[in-house]
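Dock 2-phosphoglycolic acid; give full complex structure.
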Amino acid sequence: MKLIVGNQKSYLNSDAVDIFIDNLNTIQKKDNILICPSSIYIERFIQGDIRTGCQNVSKNKNGGYTGELAVEQLKSIGVSFALVGHSEVRKNFHETIEDTNIKILKLIANDIVPILCVGETDEERENNETIDVILRQIQGALEGLSTYDIKKVIIAYEPVWAIGTGNVPSNEDIEEVVATISDFFFDNYQFKAIILYGGSVNPNNIDTLNEIKGIDGYLIGGASSKIDEFIEIINKCQKED
Ligand code: PGA
């Protein structure tokens, strides 16, 4: 069963959230679906009986940090997953690999599963740096974690140039990166990592993406805020099972 994670970014207003929750709850098998809504709606999703994560966390503990979401606060309301290292956060909030690492250490310490987003920019891809960039992002983010804790981390491969653009790498290119990530975890820590693909996943390309070997699921942005499209993707993935 593919893991389907929705990253709703800041797309939805309040009314649309109610409609989204009601419609998602018409789906019978929801165990593999996880939504990361805007933080103001997190509790609504949890109360709506939907597995809920958050889109970003603070690297600071709870205290005098205006506008931040402390991991301890998220834990206290029942958040069980968190995106970390998303390229929009790396870019817009100048998050460094060290910051991502601090956040992952805090998440693990608070029993929240990190979904570590990694991916190359267009320029890095053209310079053939994709694999180097991704392995650097992964190694840096996992610094200081035991093998036991590394096994809890989910990886989302999201080429930066594919996010929100409608451009998706070929299946062969995704498969190559996913295989490299998989080998990295197998060679260094002897386990099969959970690896998602993200970047312009939509109902029109999901059947093609489902042909890729080694992918455990998807991280879906834009299409996860349009309930019809999202349900279509879920149905197409469940048909595969
Ligand atoms: P997208 O976003 O599906 O809109 O490309 C994916 C993401 O940013 O996680």
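Observed: Residues 7, 158, 163-164, 198-201, 219-223 surround 2-phosphoglycolic acid (CB under 6 Å).
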